[in-house]
Every structure is written in structure tokens, then in C-alpha cells.
Amino acid sequence: MILVWGDRSDSPIGLVLDELSRRGTPVLHIDQNLNALEYDFVFEPEPSGFIRWRGSKTAVEDIQSIYLRPSDPAPEDRNAAAALSALSSFIAVPVVNRP
Q1: What's the CATH code of the domain at 32?
Q2: How is the chain classified by DSSP, letter by letter?
Q3: How many domains does the chain have?
Q4: What residues make up the domain containing 55?
């Protein structure tokens, strides 16, 4: 599973999503509207937990890589954005565009 975080209208995000779809790669795409995001993370001894996004639940352990291009979050989305940023910092997978 590849976690892609960013707006599809951002050209690099759109291109990555299109290519991953073409290859049949499992993707969890989280856009900038984070009010629908549910998560529960534990960071020690290693990251675990889950992300629930629009009816789909993904275990942190299933994330194999992350591609990030988030824009500035809305005030009500800052906690969720901070949690995703923390996950990208602690998880032991390739992360592209680390904030």
C-alpha cells in the first residue's frame, strides 16, 4: 500500500496517482480535506495503528511507502495534518517529499 497525501489537482500528485493506478498498485490517497480522516497511531516502540479514510481502513503496518505534497491545512485540519506528518517522520518506509 502506498500512502499518497495531497490534492489530485496538484500535477505531480495527479501524475503519481495515474501511474500507480495504471500499474494496479494499492493506494491510499488522502487529499487536503482532512475532516473525514480518522486515525489512531502509536509511535513506540515502532509506528502502529490505523488510518480510516472515506470508509477504508488501512493498518499503518500495511503502508510500504509514502508520497507527500500537502498544502497548508485548514485550521480545523491541523491536528490531523500534524499526525500524518509525525507518521511520515517515524515510519520506517521510503518517504518522498518529507516535510
Answers
A1: 3.40.50
A2: -EEEEE-TTSHHHHHHHHHHHHHT--EEEE-S-GGGEEEEEE-SSS-EEEEEETTEEEEGGG--EEEEE--PPPGGGHHHHHHHHHHHHHSSS-EES--
A3: 1
A4: 2-96
What nine digits make up the cell of 11?
Answer: 500535477
- Digit-by-digit pLDDT tens for the chain (99 residues) are 999 999 999 999 999 999 999 999 999 999 988 988 999 999 988 899 999 998 899 999 999 999 999 989 999 999 999 999 999 999 999 999 855
37 in Cβ contact with 30 (< 8 Å): yes
The pLDDT assigned to 99 comes to 54
| Residues sharing a CB contact under 8 Å with residue 99, sequence separation 6 or more, in sequence order | 68, 70, 85, 88
Amino acid found at 45: P
- Do residues 49 and 42 touch, judged by C-beta distance below 8 A? yes
